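Q: What changes when magnesium ion is included in the input?
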Amino acid sequence: MATTISRIRVICTAPEGINLAVVKVETSQPGLYGLGCATFSYRYLTVKHLIETYLEPLLKGRSVEDIEELWQLMHQNGYWRNGPVENNAISGIDMALWDIKGKMAGMPLYQLFGGKVREAVAVYRHAEGRDIEELCDNIRRFQAMGITAIRCQCGGYGGDGYGRAPSTAPAGARPGVYLDSQKYIRDTVRLFEGIRTRLGDEVQLIHDVHERIAPAEAVQLASELEPYHLFFLEDPVPLEQLGWLRRIRERSSTPIAIGELFNNPSEWRALITERLIDYIRVHISQIGGLTPARKLQIFAEQFGVRTAWHGPGDMSPVAHAANVHIDLAASNFGIQEWSGIEPPNFVIQELRKQEGALLEVFDGLPEFRDGYVYPNDRPGLGVDINEEIARRYPCVDGVTVWTQTRKGDGSLQVP
Ligand code: MG
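A: The predicted holo structure follows.
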């Protein structure tokens, strides 16, 4: 008799103060369940509602074996599709079904994806500093941990923190994250010049524009950063302005990585077939889970485009594990963003407390050692959740402010 879906639940928890949503798919086979990541931190209750109200009734009683069929069923069931809320909801269930598939097979997921082509995945970390000296100190600390690629930023993502408008803005300008884009470009170019002077040519440097400047300025920045040989420049333009990538390509050899806001194949198809990017870095839950991510990875391989999946703090360890299982089996793996969920003794000192909370809630996290991340060899994704401890870290509701970037005249930075 087929094993069927008996119950689908959403566990919401915020062990690090970041809202996470993990889906648990329970089955007709006692003790057999799967976990998936449905984290859309800033709209997590909407995702939870969608799963419990619409997707659980759709899937209850269906065979857990039919992942492709169930993915397509969920994808088309609401008629309108490819939105971030729905995609994250689908991802939670999709990853959980893959987790179950691995448990039924008795194999870690990378085995089902074709087996390892590497023993572990190289990761990059994000270093910040108030000034270049502090930044270089933080880069050296990551280097001491064996990390060879580091994403660098001074003072957050180019702007100040959320707060009142600067005195140069017009009277009555609203609060926000104020960004003077030309100053940001000048400072960033000087920053990379300074890093190369201090740390030499060997360290691999990454910079994330976070799509916060005008497209024409992104063309300028990619060109001006060329002498510093970046590993890649991340999200130079928003997905609404992908047409500008051709201009960036014409003007500079700086490698481009893009995609953490992508929702559906029509956004990445031409970028890959026309080789307008070097790295595809989608957020796997945001495109609908492991099923579409595997298809995307294999598609990109045909065109020489490598993967650099999004791996920020606002995704659960279940999603980090999903990234790593694809990475291990992907010939076109490029690099993995890693936001620092190492066991405590590998964590830089001041982060230790918050990292500990995540490790209390989740068990079986991929493990960081000397610049690489290793998954465990448990069947499926290999990650479990302690629901009782998860409840001690309730999610935090409120208005999101870090997304409110404003230009010098007080208007919103729009895509
Ligand atoms: Mg980014």
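Observations recorded in class: The chain has a mean pLDDT of 94.
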